[in-house]
């Protein structure tokens, strides 16, 4: 799954676009009266940035993503992609869902082709689809149907389909949530490779704090200020360090514990002034203990 | 090397020429480049349970077994006189009746007119059913306006239409074809409307997310999603068409297999009655198999 030299996209120029959410709110009518899911969400995404959206279950993460893609329309506020609001479903955005949602009667190649922008010339479209299948490592399986492939391969197809759109903004709704743990780690690295090869603004909904810290430039914590209130942005955390990051980094572990506490999870984490020589109860993380021994034989 | 076709644990499943059967080797096809464990949903085609039962010769011989036994038993009870001839004519008598009618040129005429009525009525009814089903299945407004009325009309038993149709259209081809069209309309309408209403909402949303709307959404997502259901609706409609044909011909006709039945009842020609029933079974099964063949080809392409 290596990145081959990617030519300039066959289907027109593409660049990452900034997104601005201003006072976005969404209320749904329910049998028990109106229910406000989101209120006063203000958020700015810089072009080419990866932003992870985390929050407790049912806090409106996916709803917010659907507002940005315009699959759903906010009641209040404005969503500007590159300074302008879209009337209908925003063609500058592409969505990949938690389930691959592939059309079962189409081959993987035909499923990826569904993402091509409307009016793409046939030859250019085919070349672009081949390029993307190569990028996600599916060139050998392009002729298979969704039910013939594993969950990871289906999810890679879904990612390639979203990229076929040449999106200025890539919206990922818990894209790796349904995958097994090992495949999830591989898909995270694939996403970073793809982002390096084809820079685009990424808004990623996840329930996995570690995933958020591994992938994102900034992590946005969505939640209600008090129980029952409408959800809004509660915290924005800038993640330190350039990607690819050390999954076992001590600094990220601190941040992880911090965010989990923010999500209402008790982490039993014992903060320490220096993460490098932690000796509390001998609970030294394996990574920090073994690396100095092997690298500095004194 | 002797390998039982389709047995598990003997490498790729091959057909009689030694070519790997693609459908049975999906797991192998996915394995070399799957850098993650093959998912639980890969290769659920039931490989291993297929094999000898899929061979054409086995299917044809197995399917013919029961009819052969039945004809043999039929011959035995009539030839030995266990059942008197005025209650049940033997197979040879039925065959003789067929030859007799064929020599007079009547047999072909009766079969042809019946087939023609069924095909004409089926074509009209199925087409109207497809269009109406699509409109009611896709449009909430049409669903609210038309679905209850159509449901009430469907509840009217087929024979109830006959006096009215004869009054309006007289006894002729029109009234019979109309009755058959009514019969084939409802299975198609019901299955198409129901299937379109229940197309996976997630897939429709994917279509919308990728800029599909209206007709392009219909042809790209909704129509392919319901196509297998539409074909089973057509199969049901074909069975209904034969049902309504006989109803129409029994009541008022001068030709056709239904007429052969009533005419022979009046003349006491039990051999001809049995002939008509055998012909209805055979022709009905042939038309059903033709649609089934199309369904099979469609499903291998589709899912």
TrEMBL record, chain A:
Q: Which InterPro entries does this one have?
A: AAA+_ATPase (IPR003593), ABC_transporter-like_ATP-bd (IPR003439), ABC_transporter_ATP-bind (IPR050166), P-loop_NTPase (IPR027417)
What Pfam families does its record include?
ABC_tran
SUPFAM superfamilies linked to this entry: P-loop containing nucleoside triphosphate hydrolases
Q: Where is the ABC transporter domain positioned along the sequence? A: 19-249
Q: Which UniProt keywords apply?
A: ATP-binding, Nucleotide-binding, Transport
> Superkingdom of this entry's organism?
Bacteria
- Name a GO molecular-function annotation: ATP hydrolysis activity
Q: Which Gene3D superfamilies match?
A: P-loop containing nucleotide triphosphate hydrolases (3.40.50.300)
Q: Kindly provide the name given to this protein in its UniProt entry.
A: ABC transporter
Automatic annotation (TrEMBL), chain B:
**Which keywords describe this protein according to UniProt?**
Cell membrane, Membrane, Transmembrane, Transmembrane helix, Transport
Per the UniProt record, which residue ranges are transmembrane? 57-77, 118-139, 151-171, 177-196, 217-236, 242-261, 273-293
Q: Which family does the record claim for this protein?
A: Belongs to the binding-protein-dependent transport system permease family.
Membrane protein topology class? Multi-pass membrane protein
Q: Where in the cell is it found?
A: Cell membrane
The record's CDD domains line, in alphabetical order, gives:
TM_PBP2
Q: Which Pfam families match?
A: BPD_transp_1
For this protein, the record's InterPro entries field holds:
MetI-like, MetI-like_sf
**Domain ABC transmembrane type-1 per the UniProt entry, residue ranges:** 107-292
Query: What is the recorded name of this protein?
Result: ABC transporter permease
Judging by the UniProt lineage, the source's domain of life is: Bacteria
Might you name a Gene Ontology BP term for this protein? alkanesulfonate transmembrane transport
Gene Ontology cellular-component annotations: plasma membrane
Region (Disordered) spans which residues?
Answer: 26-49
Q: Which organism is it from?
A: Cellulomonas aerilata
């Amino acid at each position: 799954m290596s990145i081959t030299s990617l030519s300039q996209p066959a289907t027109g120029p593409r660049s990452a676009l900034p997104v601005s959410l201003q006072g976005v709110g969404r209320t749904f009518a329910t049998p028990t009266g109106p229910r406000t899911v989101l209120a006063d969400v203000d958020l700015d995404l810089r072009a080419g940035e990866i932003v992870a959206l985390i929050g407790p279950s049912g806090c409106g993460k996916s709803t917010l993503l659907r507002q940005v893609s315009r699959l759903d329309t906010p009641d209040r506020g404005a969503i500007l992609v590159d300074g302008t609001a879209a009337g209908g479903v925003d063609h500058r955005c592409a969505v990949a869902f938690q389930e691959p949602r592939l059309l079962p009667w189409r081959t993987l190649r035909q499923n990826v082709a569904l993402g091509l922008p409307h009016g793409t010339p046939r030859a250019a479209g085919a070349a672009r689809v081949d390029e993307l299948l190569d990028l996600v490592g599916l060139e050998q399986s392009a002729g298979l149907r969704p039910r013939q492939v594993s969950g990871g391969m289906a999810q890679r197809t879904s990612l390639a389909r979203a990229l076929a759109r040449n999106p200025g903004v890539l919206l990922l709704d818990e894209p790796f949530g349904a995958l097994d743990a090992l495949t999830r780690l591989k898909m995270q690295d694939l996403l970073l490779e793809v982002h390096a090869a084809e820079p685009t603004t990424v808004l990623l909904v996840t329930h996995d704090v570690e995933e958020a810290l591994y992938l994102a430039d900034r992590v946005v914590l969505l939640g209600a200020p008090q129980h029952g209130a409408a959800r809004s942005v509660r915290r924005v955390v800038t993640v330190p360090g350039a990607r690819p990051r050390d999954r076992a980094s001590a600094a990220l572990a601190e941040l992880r514990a911090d965010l989990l506490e923010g999500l209402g999870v008790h982490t039993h984490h014992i903060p320490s002034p220096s993460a490098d020589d932690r000796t509390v109860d001998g609970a030294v993380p394996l990574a920090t203990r073994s690396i100095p021994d092997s690298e500095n034989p004194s | 090397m002797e390998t039982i076709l389709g047995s598990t644990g003997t490498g790729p499943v091959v057909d009689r020429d030694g070519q790997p059967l693609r459908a049975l080797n999906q797991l192998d096809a996915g394995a070399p480049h799957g850098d993650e464990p093959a998912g639980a949903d890969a290769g659920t085609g039931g490989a291993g349970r297929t094999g000898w039962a899929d061979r054409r010769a086995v299917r044809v011989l197995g399917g013919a077994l029961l009819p052969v036994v039945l004809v043999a038993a039929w011959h035995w009870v009539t030839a030995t006189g266990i059942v008197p001839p005025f209650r049940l004519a033997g197979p040879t008598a039925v065959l003789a009746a067929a030859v007799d009618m064929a020599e007079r040129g009547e047999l072909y005429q009766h079969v042809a007119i019946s087939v023609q009525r069924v095909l004409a009525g089926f074509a009209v009814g199925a087409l109207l059913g497809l269009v109406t089903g699509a409109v009611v299945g896709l449009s909430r407004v049409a669903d609210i306006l038309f679905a209850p009325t159509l449901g009430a009309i469907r509840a009217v038993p087929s024979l109830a239409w006959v006096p009215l149709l004869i009054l309006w259209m007289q006894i002729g081809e029109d009234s019979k074809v109309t009755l058959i069209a009514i019969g084939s309309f409802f299975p198609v309408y019901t299955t198409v409307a129901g299937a379109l209403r229940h197309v996976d909402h997630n897939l429709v949303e994917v279509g919308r997310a990728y800029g599909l709307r209206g007709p392009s959404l219909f042809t790209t997502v909704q129509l392919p999603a319901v196509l297998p259901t539409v074909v089973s609706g057509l199969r049901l409609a074909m069975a209904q068409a034969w049902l309504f044909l006989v109803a129409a011909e029994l009541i008022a006709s001068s030709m056709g297999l239904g007429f052969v039945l009533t005419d022979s009842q009046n003349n006491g020609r039990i051999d001809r009655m049995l002939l008509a029933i055998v012909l209805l079974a055979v022709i009905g099964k042939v038309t059903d198999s033709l649609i089934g063949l199309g369904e099979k080809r469609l499903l291998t392409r589709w899912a």
